[in-house]
Design a protein that fits this description.
Elements lengths: L1 H4 L7 E5 L3 E7 L3 E6 L4 E6 L12 H14 L8 E12 L3 E4 L7 E8 L6 E2 L8 E5 L5 E7 L16 H7 L4 E5 L14 E14 L9 E12 L6 E8 L6
Parallel strand pairs: 8-12
Antiparallel strand pairs: 1-2, 2-3, 3-4, 4-10, 5-6, 5-7, 7-9, 9-10, 11-14, 12-13, 13-14
């Protein structure tokens, strides 16, 4: 149904994955759509990043374009998602994507989260949004990534979050999950490469440990900067810290 709304008329290529199940691949000259029903993962993208005239569309126009694309093509219903954040990203050839201004961005990324969750849901990579749409400066949708979690329900049990004192005492246990907007591959860093991390922002969110996880656990997302051997100055850093108090 989604593939038809996106304009794909040919039957998909089917591939079977031991873990992911059946994968349906729709492809034509201009764009592609891949659906994995077992895991609820849906991916749409243009096959090439075209050059686009910067029409200076407003933030509301960007958000509305992203939401309309998801709703009109059947990825989600209007009542299922809530706007999360709007990012302006610029491509650095051979390096990756970095935060930018709207005027110089290569594309705009609009992230949403499931309305039932009431707050952002994070995956192992904080840059990897659960529901995200990338829009070119001329207003055309470049790609969309949607992970459908099924029905979400709040736990009947209540858990106390860490107090400021517990948070301060445990901050050294926070796990570093991303450096330089995800452009530094953490497993490649030698021991001791990160010499200092400064935290400037904290956000309470939920953590999806794996696509088949049955529980979303509250975590603190810590944002800041880090000093990394071999990189001049500082780079952005994201860390996760479990948010539930041990005194529950």
């Amino acid at each position: 149904s989604i593939a038809g709304k996106l304009g794909f008329t040919s039957d998909p290529v089917e591939a079977n994955d031991v873990l992911e199940g059946t994968v349906y691949i729709f492809s034509q000259a201009r764009d592609s759509f891949v659906a994995t029903p077992k895991t609820g993962v849906l991916d749409y993208t243009l096959n090439e990043l075209p050059s686009a005239i910067n029409k200076q569309i407003t933030e509301n126009e960007i958000k509305n374009t992203a939401q309309s694309f998801l709703v009109d093509n059947g990825f989600v219903t209007p009542d299922e998602i809530v706007f999360g954040e709007l990012l302006f990203l610029r491509e650095a050839p051979g390096e990756g994507y970095y935060p930018s201004t709207r005027e110089s961005a290569s594309f705009y990324q609009v992230n949403f989260y499931p309305k039932a969750a009431s707050r952002t849901i994070l995956k192992l990579n904080p840059q990897d949004s659960l529901i995200g749409v990338r829009i070119l400066p001329d207003g055309e949708v470049f790609s969309a990534h949607v992970v459908r979690l099924g029905t979400l329900s709040e736990s009947s049990s209540q858990y106390k979050l860490k107090s400021y004192s517990e948070f301060s005492n445990d901050i050294g246990k926070a796990v570093l999950v991303s450096l330089d907007e995800g452009n530094i591959y953490l497993p490649d860093l030698p021991a001791g490469a990160v010499s200092k991390v400064s935290i400037s922002e904290v956000e309470l969110a939920y953590f999806l440990e794996a696509k088949d996880s049955l529980i979303l656990q509250p975590v603190y997302l810590l944002r800041g900067e880090a000093s990394v051997s071999g990189y001049p100055g500082t780079v952005s850093a994201f860390l996760y810290l479990p948010a539930i108090s041990l005194s529950n």
